[in-house]
Every structure is written in structure tokens, then in C-alpha cells.
Amino acid sequence: MSTTNYPSATPQSQPPKKDFKNLIIGLLAAGFLGTWGYLLYNNNKNEQTHQTDQSQIAKVTDEKGQIQKNFDDALVRLDSLTGNNNKLQTQLTSANSDIAKKKAEIRNILRKDHATAAELNKAKELISELNNKISDLEKQVQDLTNQNTQLTAEKTQLTQDKEKLTQDLQTTTTEKQDLAKKVDVASTLNATNIAITPYHDRKNGKEKITTTAKRVDKLVISFDVNNRIAQSGQTDVYVCITGPDGKQITDQALGSGTFTSREDGDKPYTAKVPVDIEAGKTKSVQFAWKQQSGSDFLKGVYKIEIYHNGFKIGEGTRELKKGGLFS
For FRET with 266, which of 75, 104, 153, 300 sits at 20 to 30 Å CA-CA? Predict the structure, then answer.
């Protein structure tokens, strides 16, 4: 092979021209595939993030709903306590301000559409504090209920005791009245040795017993009284004299009047005789009954009745006769 400076008449061979079309297409395809892959990856990542956000939103929503439910339950407990207990409502005056403040804070948090986790935790704390206060109120209600139950039981017992005391008092009063009646009846005097003696007063001042009616100036009535349980002291004995004509002999000018007998009610008496009684001793009683001036005793039977304490305690009779020619 020779070297010359002259150009060769034979054309020389040139290297083949590179074709970049396929390379560009490949690169474009690779870029497209990479972009598509990235888009798919990014879309998938966004989808996961969205699902995570949705899950978190759902979780927050559920948590908020549970907090709302817990708050509503607390309010129901509070209303049930304060609504039915007036005494507790009065005691709640000092606690109402703090309770109202906590309720307002909880409501403000729950009203927010996008409450943060910190705010929800704050709401939980407030509801817990509210429930603690409600628990204290429940204890107070229970204490008040127990006290009320005890007071009711004590009131019932006191009522029963009062009824028993009233019954006992009524029984005692009745027994006392019965005993007083028995003592009253038992203290009535007994009259014995009843005597009715007609006397004629002579001009010389001496007295003479006579049964002639027109000569009798007075009837001397005597009797003995006694009672073992009668109290010492003065008492009144009533003497009723009935004449032969069946009429009661009375004279207001001489002290006659009326008294109340146990059997006949109001009854006229001829004379009221005061008697000094000594317990357990017999007392002799005597008094004289004279007719008014110018009035003579009638002939016939005179009936004498003696009363004490409304009871008839004795009676006797005396007959005055019509006198003879020289009587």
C-alpha cells in the first residue's frame, strides 16, 4: 500500500451514520412509563393517605359521638337528681356555678365540627369532673333518702306512741272517772236511828212529847250518819217532809229550796242541814221544824226523807192524831 498526497480516484468508505430515533423512542417510553408509574404510585399513596384521613376522621367522629353520649348521660343523671329533690336543689346553690361552667365548656367543644384531639381530651376531663360532682350529689341524695327514711320511721313510731299514750290517757281518764264515781257514791253517808218526835212547848219553858196534832208546836228530827271513807269536813244533808195531805212542806222563809237527786232530778226540800263529818266516826244530827205562826200541824202521817249526795239515805214516819175532848 502506497501513500500519496494525491487524492485517490477510488472513493473511500465512511462510517455508518447513527440512528437516534429508536433511542429517543425508548427514552420517551421509559419516561412515560416512569411518569405513569409515579402517577400510579402517587395516586396509590394519596389514596392510602385519604383512607388514613378518613379513618382518623371516622375515629374522631366516633370519639366525639361517644363524648357527646357521655355528656348527655351525665346531664340525665344530674337532672334526675336535682329535678326530684328540692332540698338538694337548695344545697346546690354554691355548686351550680362550677357545674354550669363545665357544661358550657363541654358544649363549646362538642359544637365544633373539627375539634382537635386536645380539645376532645379536655372535654373528656371536664365530663369526668362533672361525673365526679354528680357522684357526690348522688351520695348526698342517698344520705338524704336514708335520713328521710329514718325520719319517716321515727315519725311513724312517734305517731304510734302518741296514739298509745292517747288511748292510755283515755283509759286512765275513764278509769279515773269511774273510780271517782265509785268513790263519790261510796262516800255517801248512811243514816240510822231515825226518830221523829212531836213536842208541845209549855208556858213554863219545858217541852212535852205529844201526838195530838193541834198541840204539836214542832217536830224534832234526829238521826245518826256515818261513812268509813268520807273525808272529814262539812257536808249538807237535805230533809224532805211530806204532810198527811201528800204535799211537800216547804217554806222559803225558813230555808226551804230545791236540790238535785240522782233518781228524781230536781226535788224540793224542807230543810238543809249542815253536818260536820269525821272520817270513820258516827255523827248525831238533830234539828227542829216549826210551822209558821198561826199554822197547825195536820192530823195524819208525816213522812220524813233524808238525802245526801243526791241519794236517799233514810226515811221515817210519824202519825199525829186528832185529840180527844180534853186533850
Answer: 300
